[in-house]
Amino acid sequence: MSFQAYLDTIETKTGLTPRQFVALAAERGFDDPSTKAGVILTWLKEDYGLGRGHGMALVHVFKHGAKIDAKHVGTTGSHRDASDTLWLDGKATRPA
Hints:
This protein is mostly helical. The chain has helices at residues 3-14, 18-27, 37-48, 52-64. The protein contains 4 helices and no strands. The longest helix has 13 residues, at 52-64. It is globular, with a radius of gyration of 13 Å.
């Protein structure tokens, strides 16, 4: 599953875009670089029912923004992404 597909699945499951999750994390102070992933994962599991894989995708976005490593861009593997920049504003608004 691509990184973007993880974020799309999170939106389908929760009804919230990644950008909305970024705002919610900031409200809780989880945008602080010293915040441990485990604290964020517990919140995401308890409040939104997200498992570790989907939670870690959001942790990455909270800590590093929309940029991802380009090593999977343009590959044919299961973890391939079309771009090194994730779309955070929801599936319905993503450019074609």
